[in-house]
Amino acid sequence: MDNQVKDKVYILDTTLRDGAQRADISFSVNDKLQLIERFDDIGIDYIEVGFPASNPKEMELFEKLKGRKFDYSKIIAFGMTRYKNIKAEEDENIKQLVQSGADSICIVGKSSALHAEKVIETTLENNLSMIFDTIEYLKKYFPEVIFDAEHFFDGFRENPQYAVKTLKSALEAGADYLVLCDTNGGMLPDDVIEIIEKVKKGVKATLGIHFHNDSGCAVANTLIAVNKGIKMVHGTINGYGERCGNADLCQIIPNLEIKLEKSCLKEGNLKHLTNLSRFVSETANQISNPGQPFVGRNAFAHKGGMHVSGVSKIPKAFEHIDPEAVGNTREILISELSGKKSIILKAKEFGINLEDDLKKVSEILSRVQNLEHKGYQFEAADGSFELLVKEITGLKKKFFKLESFRVLNEKKEDGRMLSEATVKIEINGDRIIETAEGNGPVNALDSALRKAIESRYPALSKITLTDFKVRVLNEKKGTRAVVRVLIESSDGEKSWGTIGVSENIIEASWQALEDSVVYGLMHVEKNKQE
Question: Which one of 134, 208, 328, 424 is most buried, by most CB atoms within 10 A?
Answer without folding.
Answer: 134
